[in-house]
């Protein structure tokens, strides 16, 4: 097949499999605070979430991220992620429609 290989990842909220680039990675670095890893290259255990608030609402529910990342998420870290999520669109415009 002449198709270019596209790395795929699963959103931990909606379980949809999508190209890695369309997802946001949340990572627990070996040391330090949980962070949003826009480039997807930070070391540590990561979880992928769609770039839409509806998925982040799911992920921010107690226990979700903890389970996905096998870590403890502090209130401060959760709040930082909540703020990140607020900047995202509620849902993706034209999702599922390819040009
Ligand atoms: Zn999702």
Biggest beta-sheet profile: 3 strands, antiparallel
Find the CATH superfamily: YlxR-like
Output the helix-strand order.
EEEEEHHH
| Spatial arrangement of strands, main beta sheet | 4-3-5
Give the count of structural domains: 1
Mean pLDDT: 90
Helix and strand arrangement:
Blueprint: E1 8-10, E2 17-19, E3 23-28, E4 35-37, E5 45-50, H1 53-59, H2 64-69, H3 75-86
Antiparallel strand pairs: 1-2, 3-4, 3-5
Bound molecules: zinc ion (ZN).
What can you see in these coordinates?
A 3-stranded antiparallel sheet has the order 4-3-5. With 99 residues, the protein is an alpha+beta fold. It has 3 helices and 5 strands. The mean pLDDT is 90. The longest helix has 12 residues, at 75-86. The two termini are 22 Å apart. It has one domain (8-86): 2-Layer Sandwich (Hypothetical Cytosolic Protein, Chain: A), CATH 3.30.1230.10. The structure holds zinc ion.
List keywords for this structure.
99 residues, alpha+beta, Hypothetical Cytosolic Protein, Chain: A, two-stranded antiparallel sheet, 3 helices, globular, binds zinc ion
Give a short summary of the structure.
Helix content is 25%, strand content 21%. It has 99 residues and is an alpha+beta fold.
